[in-house]
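To: structure subgroup
Subject: Chain for Friday's discussion

All,

I'm putting the inputs and outputs inline so they're searchable in the archive.
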Amino acid sequence: MIPGRYNFGTNISDEWLASGDASRLLAGASAFTLAATAGWLAGVQVQDTGVLSRVLWGIFGVLLPISVFFLWGGMWSYWMRCDPSSRLARRIWFAVLLVGFWYGSILYYAFVYLRTRRGAVLNAIRGEER
């Protein structure tokens, strides 16, 4: 492999990715994304609000893409390096992550990451292969 290329998420260790801190940050990013989706579907009209509200919506608008890409990148990294699921399950989740973007990442977080992260930490520490 060419150094510096295709090293998506290599600066994050497997132990941190499966840690409680990462889990809380990913939960926050999931909740933030779902809240933004709810606001968008509710048809919030920001231009009809006050100055303080516009500033808060602006901050929300800046933080949303950061949380979306953190969630999406974190779940891809976990899928690539730590997921102990069967080959068939990994293929299905590959399609969900690929097509579902951040909503697929929220599903992956809820149904795979939360269930398997503790075992993934132990496997990473022991150096076991999946």
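Points worth raising on Friday:
The chain has one domain: 14-124.
The radius of gyration is 17 Å.

D.
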